[in-house]
Specification:
single chain; alpha+beta; Arc Repressor Mutant, subunit A; 3 domains; 8-stranded mixed sheet; 3-stranded antiparallel sheet; 16 helices; elongated
C-alpha cells in the first residue's frame, strides 16, 4: 500500500478480548475449572454437557472478577445485570445456545489509555460482560485419510469474560500495545493468567477501511485465530492492505469473519459475519437478574491494588528510568518486591534498573521457577548500598547475588569473606602499569582511537583482582597512564 493511498483512507479497529477467569469451578456448575493438563472429557457433568432439564448456578467469584476488571478499566457498574441466551448451532456448543450477556452487561462505558511512540490514545471500553466458554474442537485426519474432528468438553462452561473496545484504534501498533497492556493489567489484578498460549486470552479484531472525509458505515470484517500479539499486528496489516486495495478498485467490502493463517501470512474467509439479531437473544429463563449493590462494588474497589500506571508514574518521579519501569510493571510480584526494596532504603532509580536486569537474571536461573523469592528485600537493599558506596563493583555485586541465592547468606557475610572492592590508588596503579606493560598491542590500539582497547585493559585488571577493582578508578588510572606516555 502506497503512502498516498494510505493517507486517503481511515482505518477503524475495535477489539474483542476473551479472557478465561481464574476460578476454582466453572461458570454455571461445580466442575473444576483447572482442566489444562486433564484428560479430555473428564471435567464434565450434566450441566456443562448440555443435558436436558439441568439448571445452571451463577459462579459468584466470576461475577466479582468481572466487576474488578470493569473497575480497573474505569467502567460504570450498573445496579442491574442479566444473563441471556445467545442462539447459534456450532459443533463446539453443547446446548446450541450460549449463556452470555446482551443488553444489560456487568460493566459499561470505560476507557483504557495506550501509549505508542510517545503518543497516548484513549481507547473506549464499550462493555465487559460474562459468559461461558465453548467446548474445544481438534481437527485431525482419520485412519482412512478423511477429515475428522474430536471434541473435548472440559473447556465447555469455563467462565469467560469478554472485553469489547470502542473502534478507537487506528493502527496495528496501537492494537498490539492495547493487547499487551491489557494482558498485564489482568495479571496485575489477579483475575486471569491471561496466557495466550493456553487459550486464557484470545483476541478477535473488527476492522474496516473507509475513505477519508466520508461517513463510517456499519460493515466490518472480523478476524480470528490470532494466537500472539505479533500475529494480531500482522493480520491487521494484511487486512488494511486487502481492504484498501478493494476500495481503490471500487469493490465492496463484505461483512464476514476471516481467519488468520500464520503460514501464508494472510486472512481467509470463513463465513458471513452474523448480526446481533441473527443470534435471537432472549433473557436466560433459568437465571435471575443480578442486583449489584453499591456496597459490593465499593468493597471490590477498595480491595484492588494500585494500578500499574499509577505505580509507574510514582517510580519515574522518584528517578527510575521510564523504559525499565515499563518493563517492571508487566510483573506485579516483581514490582511489589521492588517497592519493598525501595522501602528498605534503596534508591528507586538504582533498585528498578538493577532488579529488572541483574536480579531477574539471577532469579530466572533458579531451578524452582515460580517459587517464593528466598532473599528478603532488605538484603537486596543492603547489597545495593554496598554497591553504591563502592564496597563492591557492579560485577562483584552480581556474583554476590548469585552466592546469596545459592547459600542463603547475607550480602555483608559474603562481601566480608571475599574482601571488599579495591579502590586504593597505590595498589590499583601497580596493577594498571603491569597490564599496560604486558599488552602493547592494546596500548597502540588505544592511541589509534579504538575505544574497545580501554575496555580490554580494564578487563585485564578486573581479572587480576578477581573482580574486586573499582571500575571507575581503574578507568581513570589507565587513561592517565596512557595519556601521560603518549
Amino acid at each position: 500500500m502506497t503512502t498516498a493511498s494510505a493517507t486517503a483512507y481511515r482505518v477503524v479497529i475495535g477489539l474483542e478480548t476473551h479472557v478465561q477467569l481464574r476460578t476454582q469451578s466453572k461458570m454455571f456448575c461445580g466442575c473444576a475449572a483447572d482442566y489444562a493438563n486433564a484428560r479430555p472429557n473428564t471435567h464434565v457433568c450434566p450441566v456443562c454437557l448440555g443435558m436436558p432439564g439441568v439448571l445452571p448456578v451463577i459462579n459468584r467469584e466470576a461475577v466479582n472478577h468481572t466487576i474488578r476488571t470493569g473497575l480497573a478499566l474505569n467502567c460504570e457498574i450498573p445496579d442491574y445485570a442479566k444473563f441471556d441466551r445467545k442462539n447459534y448451532a456450532y459443533p463446539d456448543l453443547m446446548k446450541w445456545y450460549q449463556i452470555s450477556q446482551y443488553d444489560l452487561p456487568l460493566c459499561i462505558n470505560g476507557h483504557f489509555d495506550v501509549d505508542v511512540d510517545g503518543a497516548t490514545t484513549r481507547v473506549g471500553i464499550t462493555r465487559v460482560h460474562l459468559e461461558e466458554d465453548t467446548a474445544r474442537l481438534t481437527h485431525v485426519t482419520a485412519a482412512d485419510g478423511s477429515p475428522a474432528s474430536l471434541i473435548d468438553v472440559n473447556r465447555s462452561g469455563a467462565p469467560l469474560m469478554e472485553i469489547v473496545s470502542e473502534p478507537d484504534i487506528q493502527t496495528p501498533a496501537e492494537a498490539m500495545a492495547y493487547g499487551e497492556k491489557l494482558r498485564a493489567l489482568l495479571r496485575w489484578i489477579g483475575v486471569s493468567t491471561a496466557n495466550m498460549e493456553d487459550g486464557a486470552l484470545r483476541i478477535d479484531a473488527n476492522i474496516s477501511v473507509w475513505p477519508q472525509g466520508e461517513p463510517i458505515g456499519d460493515v466490518k470484517v472480523e478476524v480470528k485465530n490470532m494466537n500472539s500479539f505479533r500475529a494480531l499486528g500482522r493480520a491487521l496489516a494484511f487486512e488494511i492492505e486487502r481492504q484498501t486495495g478493494r476500495r481503490e478498485r471500487g469493490e465492496a467490502i463484505e461483512q464476514e469473519t476471516r481467519g488468520w493463517d500464520e503460514t501464508s501470512g494472510a486472512t481467509r474467509s470463513q463465513r458471513t459475519k452474523e448480526y446481533a439479531h441473527d443470534y435471537r437473544y432472549f433473557p436466560e429463563p433459568d437465571l435471575p437478574p443480578l442486583h449489584i449493590t453499591r456496597e459490593r462494588v465499593d468493597a471490590l474497589r477498595a480491595a484492588l491494588p494500585r494500578m500499574p500506571d499509577q505505580v509507574a508514574a510514582d517510580l519515574i518521579q522518584q528517578g527510575a528510568p521510564e523504559a525499565d519501569v515499563a518493563e517492571l510493571v508487566q510483573d506485579r510480584p516483581l514490582t511489589d518486591y521492588s517497592l519493598a526494596v525501595i522501602g528498605a532504603g534503596a534508591s528507586a532509580g538504582e533498585a528498578v534498573t538493577w532488579i529488572v536486569h541483574e536480579f531477574r537474571r539471577a532469579l530466572n536461573a533458579q531451578p524452582n521457577k515460580g517459587a517464593a523469592i528466598p532473599i528478603s528485600p532488605a538484603e537486596i537493599a543492603s547489597l545495593l548500598t554496598l554497591r553504591a558506596n563502592g564496597s563492591v563493583s557492579s560485577t562483584m555485586a552480581g556474583e554476590v547475588l548469585d552466592e546469596m541465592f545459592a547459600t542463603g547468606k547475607s550480602a555483608e557475610e559474603i562481601v566480608q569473606a571475599r574482601g571488599p572492592q579495591i579502590s586504593g590508588q597505590d595498589e590499583l596503579l601497580s596493577i594498571a602499569r603491569q597490564v599496560i606493560q604486558e599488552n602493547p598491542q592494546a596500548v597502540q590500539d588505544y592511541r589509534d582511537g579504538k575505544g574497545r582497547a580501554l575496555q580490554f585493559l580494564m578487563g585485564q585488571v578486573m581479572r587480576i583482582t578477581r573482580g574486586k577493582a573499582n571500575p571507575r578508578a581503574v578507568s581513570t588510572l589507565i587513561r592517565t597512564q596512557l595519556d601521560a606516555e603518549s
